[in-house]
Design brief:
heterodimer; A: 114 residues; mainly beta; B: 116 residues; seven-stranded mixed sheet; four-stranded antiparallel sheet; 0% helix
């Protein structure tokens, strides 16, 4: 079993839709959670960075963490064609022998069509 | 402020050859991590360098080695290339804050390596 599971999609939605992207994880040592966006043939770009359980909002993006269920989500409101990309969840331990190592999900391919 | 830069952009090698990839971290960052991203997959952690030493390593064979220079730039070397080494190689830089590496990692554009 992979430490981080992410539905690869692909996911296709109309412009203006609300998008929900999800990851589950098995390692309870993960304490920091990130969402990266990766355009085709580019490096990942950090979108959101969260620590505690709960919600964090940044513009049209909301990151949600539920540590008790080992489940994280990214919501995109009023989706735009420019949001079309691969979205990667990533997690990291805080301290211990695995610090500094980001563990990624497989990535979800999102297409927002006009 | 220059972000993370990597060179070359693309590289084609044949099986058995050796390759060196280069990375310059974001200004002010002292830690460099390398990741391998196969097509359709998320990045996989190779190793991380801090203070010119490898301080963390993922599940990659010894054919993968690296180096960090005093100016914090880094190289990734892969020996005896296999077809399965074809991937996008990503460099990420960060600033270590004490013993906890919860610092944000910023990625470069990657080097696309094709092994024939």
């Amino acid at each position: 079993q992979k430490e981080v599971e992410q539905d690869p999609g692909p996911l296709s939605v109309p412009e203006g839709a609300i998008v929900s992207l999800n990851c589950t994880y098995s390692n309870s040592a993960f304490q920091y959670f990130m969402w990266y966006r990766q355009y085709s043939r580019k490096g990942p770009e950090l979108l959101m960075y969260t620590y505690s359980s709960g919600n964090k909002e940044d513009g049209r993006f909301t990151a949600q963490v539920d540590k008790s269920s080992k489940y994280i989500s990214l919501f995109i409101r009023d989706s735009q064609p420019s949001d079309s990309a691969t979205y990667l969840c990533a997690m990291i331990n805080a301290g211990g022998t695995s610090y500094g190592k980001l563990t990624f999900g497989q990535g979800t391919i999102l297409t927002v069509h006009p | 402020d220059a972000g993370v830069t990597q060179s070359p952009t693309h590289l084609i090698k044949t099986r058995g050859q050796q390759v060196t990839l280069r990375c310059s971290p974001k200004s002010g960052h002292d830690t460099v991590s390398w990741y391998q991203q196969a097509l359709g997959q998320g990045p996989q952690f190779i190793f991380q360098y801090y203070e010119e030493e490898e301080r963390q390593r993922g599940n990659f064979p010894d054919r993968f080695s690296g180096h960090q220079f005093p100016n914090y730039s880094s190289e990734l070397n892969v020996n005896a290339l296999l077809l399965g080494d074809s991937a996008l190689y990503l460099c990420a830089s960060s600033l270590v804050a004490g013993w906890e590496s919860t610092d944000t990692q910023y990625f470069g554009p990657g080097t696309r390596l094709t092994v024939l």
